UniProtKB/TrEMBL annotation, chain A:
One of its GO terms (cellular component) is plasma membrane. GO terms for molecular function: branched-chain amino acid transmembrane transporter activity. The chain crosses the membrane at residues 12-32, 64-86, 156-177, 209-226, 238-256, 293-311. PANTHER family: HIGH-AFFINITY BRANCHED-CHAIN AMINO ACID TRANSPORT PROTEIN BRAE (PTHR30482:SF10), HIGH-AFFINITY BRANCHED-CHAIN AMINO ACID TRANSPORT SYSTEM PERMEASE (PTHR30482). It is a multi-pass membrane protein. This is Amino acid/amide ABC transporter membrane protein 2 (HAAT family). Its main location: membrane. InterPro entries: ABC_transp_permease, LivM-like. Keywords: Cell membrane, Membrane, Transmembrane, Transmembrane helix. It comes from the Bacteria. It is found in: Cell membrane.
From TrEMBL, chain B:
This is Amino acid/amide ABC transporter membrane protein 1 (HAAT family). Belongs to the binding-protein-dependent transport system permease family. LivHM subfamily. GO terms for cellular component: plasma membrane. GO terms for biological process: amino acid transport. It comes from Microcella putealis. One of its GO terms (molecular function) is transmembrane transporter activity. It is a multi-pass membrane protein. Keywords: Amino-acid transport, Cell membrane, Membrane, Signal, Transmembrane, Transmembrane helix, Transport. SUPFAM superfamilies: Carboxypeptidase regulatory domain-like. Residues 1-38 form the signal peptide. The chain crosses the membrane at residues 158-180, 187-207, 213-232, 244-265, 285-311, 342-361, 373-401, 408-429. It is found in: Cell membrane. Pfam families: BPD_transp_2.
């Protein structure tokens, strides 16, 4: 029979998981791009890859301490945002979509190629960069927690760091969107020409939004790889599509939407895939193999994206008046 | 890693060797990845699968022969050990190119072509099968070495790139026509590409129909798929008044769902279409096989037919009119919905055909094969000018040539990077594309 307790426990673990924190952070960055400014960034996976590799390479190759490595990751993502923004922010939205997805793929292919294997580890990726981050862990060694939420000191440290970043990023976003800057940004989403007519430099505001969301993305990349190794195949375009699913689920132009969206997304995905895998094992779905069961979740994500956009574009928390895509 | 010490040159400088080893160990400790230096066993610990073999001359092992393996995620070389053995780990269940460096064979010895028709017997394909381990062995004997001059390589690459560009054009024209008539940047076009190849796999390999019949069925089903795409999804969305950007995101959801539905049914591995890897069709003409030549001829004929349709027929003119200005076209009595439906059927058929040819070009059919060229297709379409059919053609051929010719200069696993960089540069310098008009980019 199916062990429901274990299934629910595994799903509940996703609530605190660093992966959920990373996706929430990346989705928050995307909310600034897409939800508030109306920029169609399909290269969030590229920002995450640059953050992750910026951190890992500066730790391993140059021996930087953890805080300097984080600054390198942020700096690299700012440069990436400038490279992306200069040619495309003056163009129509779908051009930005194609360029950002292409640029993210360029980044991934550069990390995969053997030409720079000395620094990137090519397809095998990098590991062993946790040392300096582990050293500043204030939690004494041991295992803490209750029920499914029992982890050792490093796992707790990664979770606290990841979710701490999410909270800080959410507060920054909330404050910014209440500020005059936020009102200009939302104005650009609604009607670029009207904002331009008010004497605002639309191009610079868009660039600032692209950089801010990109920095959140690169921090998300670091949170994503801190508990594991960094491997280029983690940063495929599918990653960006997942983040869009989370954003659409929670509500694109909201602060809490991306965070709740990430939690709902991962808890339900974990429960669904765990349930289907067990159901195949106990023979409830005789026409399916366990490998096939693993693919069902991706099909589900695709279908959920389609249904959300068509039937509830504002997401769970969104306000229908604040739709990112009015045009 | 300790094998480095046994090469004859380094024996003379023990201190240098010691330093080198220290640096190597430090690098290994730091990166925990295999550096690109040669031993007989390369990257086996870090990769799930492996390509391996034994090099022997008349049963005697040959030591010190250089083998390179290139393909998705791996480009490494190994030197055979005292038993003539070599093995290179590879990360994906894909097809890898195995090359034996004939200059490392003893004097007067070469790789023999057992079929008598393969002009480059020292280069082989190895596809990682279900066991995850492919043996790849060469026939060694006395004979003529196979050397390709730089000039010959350029010509070889040119034809390879032309072939790729032509098949890309089939895919790109469909994408561009759909964009021109409906404004949709259709990410799910990639899944129409894969659909054609997968249907040939289903009918030609699984059901063992004769190949021409399988291809015919696949093309008809591809057109039906294009029709179904419009009828079931896009037309209702247009009627609902869904905007272009939401529609684009819907197409991304469709693409994701479609790709994993394919994987659900055909699995994650790469399978070959009939005759795709057989050597019996090779020619002496610049390393092309008859399959390559047929692929180019088919592409050219179909592209000419599309051009004739667009320029000379009533319906083609109506299509271009809808592309230019749907409202004006409707006002002049053109049935816009009917034109769009026909464009979708054409786009489905062209993408399916492009997918079949792509299955022979790669070679191999896999669930994500369409997505692999989606960005190159977008690059081609943007290069030529979004929404212009002939721009897509020119853009595709430039992208195809660029991708293949660039491997003369940069590593083969970076060849798509060049094309994507071109895409960004074009948008910077001439956002409307080569044939586009400035007003389109608004």
């Amino acid at each position: 029979m199916i062990d429901w307790i274990q299934l629910l426990g595994n799903a509940a673990q996703q609530i605190l998981s660093p992966v959920t924190a990373a996706y929430a952070l990346a989705a928050l960055g995307l909310a600034i791009h897409f939800g508030y400014t109306g920029l169609l960034n399909f290269g969030q996976a590229g920002f995450m890859a640059l953050g992750a590799y910026g951190y890992a390479i500066s730790t391993l190759t140059f021996g930087f301490p953890w805080w300097a490595a984080i600054l390198v990751g942020i700096g690299v993502s700012i440069i990436f945002a400038l490279i992306l923004g200069v040619p495309t922010l003056r163009l129509r939205a779908d051009y930005l979509a194609i360029v950002t997805i292409a640029a993210a793929e360029i980044a991934r292919l550069m990390f995969t190629t053997n030409t720079f294997v000395e620094y990137t580890g090519s397809a095998n990726g990098l590991q062993g960069y946790k040392g300096s981050f582990e050293d500043v862990n204030p939690i004494p060694a041991g295992t803490y927690g209750v029920g499914p939420f029992t982890y050792n000191e490093y796992d707790w440290w990664v979770r606290i760091f990841g979710w701490g970043l999410v909270i800080v990023a959410a507060l920054i976003t909330w404050r910014l969107m209440k500020s005059p800057w936020g009102r200009v940004i939302k104005g650009i989403r609604e009607d670029e020409d009207a904002v331009r007519a008010l004497g605002k430099n639309v191009y610079f505001y868009k660039m600032q939004a692209l950089i801010l969301g990109g920095v959140f993305g690169s921090l998300a990349g670091m949170v994503f790889v801190l508990p594991r190794a960094v491997v280029p195949s983690n940063f495929q375009p599918t990653l960006t599509f997942f983040i869009y699913a989370i954003l659409l689920l929670g509500g694109a132009a909201t602060v809490l939407g991306p965070i709740i969206g990430a939690i709902v997304f991962w808890v339900s995905l974990s429960f669904f895939s765990g349930f289907v895998a067990r159901a195949v094992e106990v023979g409830w779905l005789p026409f399916m193999s366990t490998v096939q069961a693993g693919q069902l979740q991706f099909i589900l994500v695709g279908v959920v994206i389609m249904l959300l956009v068509i039937f509830r574009p504002q997401g769970i928390f969104g306000n229908k008046k604040e739709l990112a895509f009015v045009k | 890693m300790a094998h480095a010490a046994t090469t004859p040159t380094s024996r003379r400088w023990p201190r240098l060797v010691a330093t080198l080893l220290a640096v190597l160990f430090a690098a290994v400790a730091l990166l925990s990845a295999s550096p690109a230096h040669a031993t007989s066993q390369v990257g086996l610990d870090d990769n799930e699968f492996q390509v391996s073999g034994i090099v022997r001359l008349d049963g005697e092992p040959l030591e010190g022969v250089r083998i390179t393996v290139e393909g998705p995620g791996q480009s490494a070389e190994a030197i055979t050990n005292a038993e003539g053995r070599w093995a290179i780990g590879v990360p994906e269940r894909e097809t890898y190119t195995v090359t034996l460096d004939e200059s490392t064979l003893p004097e007067g010895i070469a790789v023999i072509d057992e079929s008598g028709e393969n002009p480059t017997p020292n280069i082989r394909e190895a596809t990682v099968g279900p066991s995850g381990n492919v043996p790849s062995n060469f026939f060694i004997g006395e004979g003529q070495r196979n050397t390709t001059s730089v000039g010959g390589q350029i010509v070889d690459r040119f034809f390879l790139g032309l072939n790729f560009g032509l098949l890309l054009a089939l895919v790109a024209i469909g994408l561009s026509l759909v964009f021109g008539t409906t404004g949709l940047s259709n990410f799910a076009h990639a899944e129409l590409v894969a659909f054609g190849a997968i249907m040939v796999l289903v009918f030609g390999v699984f059901l063992e129909f004769p190949l021409p019949l399988a291809i015919l069925i696949a093309l008809i089903l591809s057109m039906a798929m294009g029709w179904a795409n419009d009828a079931a999804l896009w037309k209702p969305l247009r009627k609902r008044g869904v905007g272009l950007i939401p529609m684009m995101i819907v197409s991304i959801g469709l693409s994701l769902a479609g790709r994993y539905i394919y994987q659900f049914f055909i699995g994650g591995e790469t399978r070959q279409l009939p005759f795709a890897t057989s050597t019996q069709f090779s020619t002496d003409f610049f390393g092309l096989s008859w399959i390559d030549i047929a692929s180019m001829l088919i592409s050219i004929v179909v592209l000419l037919a599309v051009a004739y349709f667009l320029l000379r027929t009533r319906l083609g003119k109506a299509t271009r009119a809808v592309s230019d200005n749907p409202a004006l076209a409707a006002a002049s009595g053109i049935d816009v919905d009917r034109v769009i439906r026909i464009v979708w059927v054409m786009a489905g058929g062209l993408a399916g055909l492009g997918g079949i040819l792509w299955g022979y070009f790669r070679p191999g059919v896999s669930w994500d094969m369409g997505f692999q060229i989606l960005l190159l297709t977008f690059a081609a379409v943007v290069l030529g000018g979004l929404g212009t059919a002939f721009g897509a053609l020119i853009g595709s051929i430039i992208v195809g040539l660029f991708v293949e010719m660039s491997t003369l200069v940069i590593a083969a696993d970076m060849k798509y990077v060049g094309a994507l960089v071109v895409l960004i540069v074009v948008l910077l310098l001439r956002p409307q594309g080569l044939l586009g008009r400035k007003e389109r980019i608004g």
